[in-house]
């Protein structure tokens, strides 16, 4: 009887969870604004400062540029890790470092691995383009990365909890205002 109840609960959750996850959520990243917006039902729910590539935009292998266009979250790494946990090759090393640790710039806290959906970003996954935490938080809000989208640890941890594998992501050189009319930002909460 207990097994039957457990199976019923699990099956019920399996049918409810996808609908909750696919409620029109998406991530929009503006290179112009150096900001990321988490959007649901065409309303900006929360915005975070980010850092995109210091080499500009593009998808060429070895260019260290941030790819543009439509993508999606194809992988997530970091469940349950503490803020500042160092991640190398998508594996936690066991080391935890403080924000702005001198001489250190590893990937930390969480990784959202992106896969491109267009010709202009077809190499994103193979290039290991991530939305990830950085120990170099003092540079957030400026172009400073080597192609990835960097975030403060607390911000990427919060975003990680909101997105799922398959969440659409758009990276654009346009400002966020071009994607979200001012009246659509009713629940706006900036993380600055």
Task: Tell me what you see in this structure.
The protein has 192 residues and is α+β, with helices and mostly antiparallel strands. The chain has helices spanning 2-21, 153-162; strands at 25-30, 35-40, 43-49, 69-77, 85-88, 91-96, 107-116, 130-134, 149-151, 168-172. The chain has a single domain, classed as L,D-transpeptidase catalytic domain-like (Beta Barrel), CATH 2.40.440.10. The chain is built from 2 helices and 10 strands, in the order αβββββββββαβ. Strands 1, 2, 3, 4, 5, 6, 7, 8, 9 and 10 form a 10-stranded mixed β-sheet that branches. A hairpin with a 2-residue loop joins strand 5 and strand 6. The model is unreliable at 1-20 (pLDDT under 50).
Named CATH topology: L,D-transpeptidase catalytic domain-like
Global geometry: globular
Largest sheet: 10 strands, mixed
CATH homologous superfamily caption: L,D-transpeptidase catalytic domain-like
Instruction: Output the structural class.
Output: alpha+beta
> End-to-end distance, in Å?
51 Å
Number of DSSP helices? 2
How many separate domains make up the residues?
Answer: 1
Helix content bin: 10-25%
Strand content: 25-35%
Question: If classified by CATH, what would the architecture be?
Answer: Beta Barrel
Name of the top-level CATH class:
Mainly Beta
Arithmetic mean of pLDDT: 87
Question: How would you sum up this structure in a few lines?
Answer:
The protein has 2 helices and 10 strands; from the N terminus they run αβββββββββαβ.
């Amino acid at each position: 009887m207990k097994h039957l109840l457990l199976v019923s609960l699990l099956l019920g959750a399996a049918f409810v969870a996808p609908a909750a996850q696919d409620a029109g959520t998406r991530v929009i990243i503006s290179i112009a604004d150096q900001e990321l917006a988490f959007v649901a039902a065409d309303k900006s729910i929360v915005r975070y400062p980010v850092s995109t590539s210091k080499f500009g935009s593009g998808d060429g292998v070895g260019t260290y540029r941030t790819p543009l266009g439509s993508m999606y979250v194809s992988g997530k790494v970091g469940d349950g890790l503490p803020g500042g946990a160092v991640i190398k090759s998508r594996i936690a090393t066991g080391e935890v470092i403080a924000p702005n640790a001198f001489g250190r710039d590893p990937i930390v806290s969480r990784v959202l691995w992106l896969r491109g959906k267009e010709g202009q970003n077809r190499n994103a996954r193979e290039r290991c383009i991530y939305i990830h935490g950085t120990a170099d938080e003092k540079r957030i809000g400026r172009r400073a990365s080597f192609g990835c989208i960097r975030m403060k640890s607390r911000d990427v941890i919060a975003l990680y909890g909101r997105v799922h594998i398959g969440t659409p992501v758009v990276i654009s050189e346009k400002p966020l205002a071009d994607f979200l009319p001012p009246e659509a930002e009713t629940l706006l909460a900036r993380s600055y």
